[in-house]
Amino acid sequence: MYYKEDNDFFRRKTSISYYDVMTVNSYETFLTSIQFFNSKQDFTYRKHCHPSYEFVIPRSGDYKCLLNGQEMSVRVGEVLLVQEGDWHQDILHAGTEYIVIAFVLKRQDKSDVKHRVFRQNIDVVKQKIDFPSDKFINSIFALMTEAGSAEENNVADAASARPDAKLPVDLFYVSQLNPLVKTGSAERDYGLYYVLDGLFQAFFWEIIFLFPPERLSPLFNRNLSDEALKSTLFSLFERNIHGKLNVPKIAADMNMSESSLAHKCKQFLGESPARSFMRYKLEKAETYINNPRLTIKEISDMFGFEDQFHFSKTFKRFYGCSPVAHRKKP
Q1: Taking the model in full, what pTM does it have?
Q2: ∠ at Cα 75 (96, 210), nearest 5°?
Q3: Which of 105, 120, 215, 226 is deepest in the core (most CB within 10 A)?
Q4: pLDDT tens-digit readout, 139-174
């Protein structure tokens, strides 16, 4: 997605930016580690309670475990999401290969409230979903191999790499990113982490939107639905930033009644749809006012106001001063 801008001075296309989504998505993910496991013999791992979230992705053979006391199997081509607070126990067989991606999920409002992704007391079988993850896995493995972090001779043994894990000696622990395995170049490893974290964020959201809404917790599901609605609304504002947009058109494009639109705008933005759009437009226009190469009239025309007087009057109503006075501020 990109936005077009064409005026007397320049023409450009701008991708959707952080500022477009910073108030739209309530959740942030933080990658903590990526681990490649290869079981050398049959064994059962100790039962443990998860302090964070994990994706389990089989690469060879079925992955089996006890999840919240229920036995389950995950095939190659499926992905299992283990939630923070779940009780988990691996039941592995010789030759089983799988990947564990551990991460933290937080709300962007920095609240300490714990939000579960899935509904309470969900059948754990519904915490897995079909997903062809080969492309993602091959990408991260190639990156880690290139950086030296996935090479066997650069990886410390399990006990020294992660003393608290108490991994059995028959489990080959190939890589951990937090802290990153040392390869002689700290800067290179830290850069690798940020690249992997970016890939993981795309991977996470692609999988989450595959789960049927009825599997997700009401709060998490509502937040996703609400954020999607806000994202659609702001995209509509952006597409009409240089022109006019009335409430009937907003409601029609959002596929909802005018009364529902008014209720949602009041709920999410604290004001009416028309005022929300005008505020959005003026916030964009305000960024141009400090450019002395543009006259106030040119900015007024750029954003589709009837004339300079109308722009100045509207700007003053929102900002408490005229565009000219705002430009003179230090």
Answers
A1: 0.59
A2: 135
A3: 105
A4: 776 666 655 544 443 333 333 333 333 333 333 333
CB atoms within 10 A of CB 135: 8
Please identify which residue in the block is written with the tokens 């141009």: 288
CA-to-CA distance for 98 and 114, rounded, in angstroms?
Answer: 28
Q: Which two tokens stand for residue 166?
A: 């108490």
How remote is the C-alpha of 61 from its chain's centroid? 30
The mean pLDDT value for 298-319 works out to 92
Give every strand in the sheet of 27-39, ordered side by side: 128-130, 78-82, 53-60, 97-107, 27-39, 171-173
Is the pLDDT assigned to residue 23 strictly greater than 50?
no
Q: Which helix (H) or strand (E) holds 1?
A: none
Q: What domains can be seen in the chain, in order of their start residue?
A: 27-215 (2.60.120.10), 240-328 (1.10.10.60)
pLDDT in tens, 56-99: 999 989 999 999 999 999 999 999 999 998 999 999 899 999 99
Mean pLDDT of 177-188: 40
CA 93 to each of CA 34, 78, 99, 168, 172: distance values in angstroms, whole numbers, following the listed order: 21, 18, 15, 13, 13
Smallest CA-to-CA distance from 150 within 173, 125, 178 is with 173
